[in-house]
Amino acid sequence: MRKLRGLRARLAFSATRTLGLWQRLRGSLRRRGLAGTVQRALRDLRRSRPPLVAVAGAPADALAYADIVLPAATQPQVSIVIPVYNKIAYTLACLQSLAQHAGAATFEVIVVDDCSSDDTPGRLADVEGLRVIRNAQNLGFVGSCNAGAAAARGEFVLFLNNDTVVTPGWLEALLRCFAEEPDAGLVGAKLVYPDGRLQEAGGIVFRDGSGWNYGRFDDPADPRYNFRREADYCSGAAILLRRSLFESLGGFDTRYAPAYYEDTDLAFAVRAAGLKVYYEPQSTVIHFEGITAGTDTGSGTKRYQVVNREKFLAKWLGALALQPAPIDDAAQAPRAATFRREKRLLIIDACTPTPDQDSGSLRMVNLMRLLRALGWQVTFFADNRLYVDGYTPALQALGVEVLYAPQMNDPIRLFRQRGGEFDAILLSRHYIAINYLGLSRLYAPQARLIFDTVDLHYLREQRAAELEGSEELRRKAERTRAQELKLIRACDATLVVSPVEQTLLARELPQARVEILSNVHEVYGCRRGYADRADLVFVGSFQHPPNEDAMLWFAREILPLLRESLPGVRLNVIGQPVPESLREFAADDFVLHGFVADLEPHMDGCRVSVAPLRYGAGVKGKVNMAMSYGLPVVATPAAVEGMHIEAGGDVLVAADAEAFAAAVTRLYGDAQLWATLSANGLANVERHFSFDAAKAALARILD
Q1: Most exposed of 279, 410, 514, 555 (fewest Cβ within 10 Å)?
Q2: What is the separation of C-alpha 462 from the centre of its chain, rounded to a whole number of angstroms?
Q3: 383 — phi, psi (to 5°)?
Q4: At what angle are helices 430-443 and 471-490 packed, to 10 degrees?
């Protein structure tokens, strides 16, 4: 019976998704034409290239390495400490990679020679910029690391094995984790074998003191190993921490001399100090494991791996009681690796969010931030399953597990294998949610199913049909309405962004649970006064039809009036892709910028933001964003619907072209009015659209 239900689910998914893709293709052809649709598809494919896996051959003969020049910063940010014992070819290969991949971060390199008997001393003396410490007697790995750290001058100390080769951006990625995670105490790199297999994506420690190299021998490109997360420990082959913290902890505990378990012990000590240990997948280090110590735990230095486990178990017995139980199946490892995240949520949306391009994406990314702050482990995949350069890594840096092709090509298999692990599933946008409704109920019956409307699409489409007098759009709106209401009935909760939509759905479906979870914005504040600003700005994605209509209306009916009342004042139109319909209006005072990576110069430098939308639904992120910077707004009633706006006090509101132009002219020339709207707009965002407001709403919805 279950197989039959699975077959029915697969057929239903395929049929529904195929129909949805066809309808979206027709819509794209209608709006963009064939050439525009093909161009967009090609643009998406060009951006969907997951990073290549680093590989490295065995080091060449030591004589092959000459003229290595290392940075020699007098005030380095990072001190890289490399303990060595013989194996000079590997050490030189490591140093050469450090020189080759030196980036923006300043560093010094300290090699601690633990009484090598080969030609290590002589060859190290030839490396320019290198600091060398030679131990008077053999101290082992622990003693050598501590000696190197004692000589360090950097804010950070980084311990690096000599049998490693670093890759581009490795150090900057580790430092970025510290910059983005205020509670970071220790950060470790992704370790990869020279043949390209994964060696470790952070370590797992079980309550019996045993460990697990998470991901060992797997594909390092697998999404499971490519999002930032807390780790129980990270291998001492490549770890970074603040020197002050390392010193306050007393360095590596010498009870583990000469080696093994000292890195695990350090990670537990970092947590005991109130900080966290992070695995940073954007930092890749190739590790020739066991070159110095070997791999046989029954002899040599490697035998201390067994001896020191007992010491570690005795020292951290209390903390180990909170660790997961040992596992014997690699399929259980992902759960053990993220055990600190007790609740798990799957999000499915149309595309990977691009928060610098559209309001819906910004809201989604900020909701992910809030979910993380509330202790949820988030898994995300886009219906198109594309890896998007820049945007996918940004989500992974937020701790989101992002699934993409080719590793995730079959959503049905995903649901079948992992459906039981999710406590909640959030399906975004009706045309995506409808594809996954059946799969969610079949394979994840325990999960709370949440439908995120983003905005109520049928309401927007009804208004577009009314504005254009289009019978075709009216029929489309009715189909959308039927689908959205079906989803609302079938799901446990529905999210809308405005009280207007909540009230409407209360009439349509009074039995449904409909919650408001609106836009989420940082509140930046007003950073430049009225007199230091000039010109107007409009921000909006032109993949959203109301934005194109708004700018056409502005260009045709409002701009001519402003040319008379405010000659020389420019409107900066920001958003992509720039519609062909707007290009004919391009002028010195109607500037089509397209995509702008950094909006702050416009938010801080323009005097007035305009939002001349004639139709739409939901809450307009362009208005929220402007107000979050203290930038006053002139808007239509449609642009401020559901935003708790006091017209004339928070925003100037005008419904027709003459009134809109008059409002812009008035605000542009009145410094006192400008200051009032700036302050009141900031207060509005703080009350209704800040992270604190959204966090409280999200906690209530998921409770």
Answers
A1: 410
A2: 35
A3: -60, -30
A4: 20
Among 190, 262, 176, CA closest to 220: 190
Q: How far apart are CA 602 and CA 568, in angstroms?
A: 17
Write phi, then psi, for 439 (nearest 5 degrees). -60, -40
Give tens-digit pLDDT for 382-396.
999 999 999 999 999
Give the domain 340-516 fold. Rossmann fold (3.40.50)
Are 287 and 191 within 8 A, CB to CB? yes
Q: How far apart are CA 521 and CA 609, in angstroms?
A: 17
Q: At residue 180, does pLDDT exceed 70?
A: yes
Full-model pTM: 0.89
Alpha helices in 471-544 (DSSP H): 471-490, 499-508
Sequence-distant (6+) residues with CB within 8 A of 29 are: 37
Closest CA to 183 of 373, 376, 370: 373
Q: Assess whether the previous peptide bond of 406 is cis (omega < 30° from 0).
A: yes
Domains 62-337 and 530-694 share a fold: no
Which fold is adopted by the domain 62-337?
A: Spore Coat Polysaccharide Biosynthesis Protein SpsA; Chain A (3.90.550)
Strands, E assignment, 542-700: 571-574, 590-594, 608-611, 633-635, 652-653
* Three-state DSSP state, 283: strand
Q: What is the mean pLDDT of the chain?
A: 92
